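Sequence, please.
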């Protein structure tokens, strides 16, 4: 069984923005290259783009799960550890 993308590292995986108050962000996609508490950096057409987690909903890889950025505003290490511990 594959665990949900929420429980995994997102670095090195494809990401697509599915919803945002800023219509220009919807549909943007690329490879996640970094994640901090407040932002996700993705490589889009050989350019690094920094997106605020607070203002986006997105999908990782080919998963059907939409992730609300407001709910994952913590460091990736904390997010992965916390979710694995609670299983």
């Amino acid at each position: 069984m594959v665990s949900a993308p929420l429980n995994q590292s997102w670095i090195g995986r494809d990401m697509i923005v599915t919803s945002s108050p800023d219509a220009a962000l919807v549909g943007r996609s690329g490879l996640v290259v970094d994640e901090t508490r407040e932002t996700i950096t993705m490589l889009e057409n050989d350019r690094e783009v920094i997106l605020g987690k607070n203002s986006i909903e997105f999908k990782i890889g080919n998963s059907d799960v939409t992730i609300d950025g407001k709910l994952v505003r913590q460091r990736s290490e904390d997010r992965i550890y916390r979710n694995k511990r609670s299983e």
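The radius of gyration is 12 Å.
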